[in-house]
């Protein structure tokens, strides 16, 4: 009996480190992934755990959390009815604005929400109609399934109903970029382009427009004055392993939320 107990103890000592070292898998929104990768890197350094972050898009992240193919899912849009089961919990880890961005050479600095919507519907086609040069507007959008696109369409009312189904109202001639980085590259290299990206991804390569006279800033998003904004959501099933729960606890801690703020997003606690 002593030998059996000794063997079980040895097995326990061998397997315990493996359990503790279980890799936390996170997949979904490319926008959320931007800050999630930084959170994962810092968590790994402090906790000695491994976190793998994959940018697959919000819709894919929601499915992954629901199906259990990923421990955690990421979404940068609100979750629709029927997308999740009752056992899946939504956790808002940050808030982010969506910036309408133009080339640095573009003299237009401010548009109304209605003007932006009309540009994306193809109803305003020339920059001269909104105070710019007499040049055609090059509309740039995100790919289907993108949480940023879904949130942008909802907020800007860029959807229409066809045969009882909601479809995008964005002009079909719009250029499509996969991810914030691609949108930035397209707009930064075309003086007549307009695109939309996560506010946390804005840099000196382009200009983030004021909307209705309100600049896209953390303070204006927090106050509700800048209205093109959305939540960053992490999805976790009730049966997710303890390692995933511990990582989420870190994300929601003061240290994790400080990283959120340092990366240009709005902390939620």
From TrEMBL:
Keyword tags: Periplasm, Phosphate transport, Secreted, Signal, Transport
Residue stretches making up the PBP domain: 19-255
An annotated Gene Ontology molecular function: phosphate ion binding
Signal sequence, start to end: 1-21
Pfam families with a match to the protein in the record: PBP_like_2 (PF12849)
Location within or outside the cell: Periplasm; Secreted
One Gene Ontology cellular component: periplasmic space
Ranges in a coiled coil: none
Entry's transmembrane regions: none
Biological process annotations from GO: cell adhesion; phosphate ion transport
UniProt cross-references to InterPro entries, sorted A to Z: PBP_domain (IPR024370), Phos-bd (IPR011862), Phosphate_ABC_transporter (IPR050811)
Alphabetized SUPFAM superfamilies for the sequence: Periplasmic binding protein-like II
PANTHER family: PERIPLASMIC PHOSPHATE BINDING COMPONENT OF PHOSPHATE ABC TRANSPORTER (PTHR30570), PHOSPHATE-BINDING PROTEIN PSTS (PTHR30570:SF1)
Role: Involved in the system for phosphate transport across the cytoplasmic membrane.
Similarity annotation: Belongs to the PstS family.
Protein name: Phosphate-binding protein
Organism of this sequence: Shewanella maritima
């Amino acid at each position: 009996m002593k030998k059996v107990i000794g063997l079980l103890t040895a097995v326990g000592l061998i397997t315990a480190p493996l359990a503790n070292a279980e890799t936390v898998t996170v997949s979904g929104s490319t926008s959320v992934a931007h800050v999630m990768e930084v959170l994962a890197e810092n968590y790994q350094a402090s906790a000695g755990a491994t976190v793998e972050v994959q940018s697959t898009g919000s819709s894919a992240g929601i499915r992954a959390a629901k199906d259990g193919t990923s421990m955690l899912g990421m979404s940068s849009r609100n979750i629709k009815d029927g997308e999740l089961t009752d056992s899946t919990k939504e956790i808002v880890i940050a808030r982010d604005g969506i910036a309408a961005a133009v080339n640095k050479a573009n003299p237009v600095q401010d548009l109304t929400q209605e003007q932006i919507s009309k540009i994306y519907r193809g109803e305003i086609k020339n920059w001269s109609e909104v105070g710019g040069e007499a040049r055609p507007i090059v509309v740039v959008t995100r790919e289907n399934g993108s949480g940023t696109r879904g949130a942008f369409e909802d907020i800007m009312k860029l959807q229409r109903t066809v045969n009882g189904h909601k479809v995008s109202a964005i002009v079909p001639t719009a250029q499509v970029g996969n991810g914030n980085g691609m949108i930035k590259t397209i707009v930064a290299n075309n003086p007549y382009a307009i695109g939309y990206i996560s506010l946390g991804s804005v840099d000196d390569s382009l200009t983030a427009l004021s909307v209705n006279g309100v600049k896209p800033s953390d303070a204006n998003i927090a106050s509700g004055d800048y209205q093109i904004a959305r939540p960053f959501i992490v999805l976790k099933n009730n049966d997710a392993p303890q390692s995933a729960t511990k990582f989420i606890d870190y994300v929601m801690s003061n240290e994790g939320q400080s990283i959120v703020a340092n990366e240009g997003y709005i902390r939620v606690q």
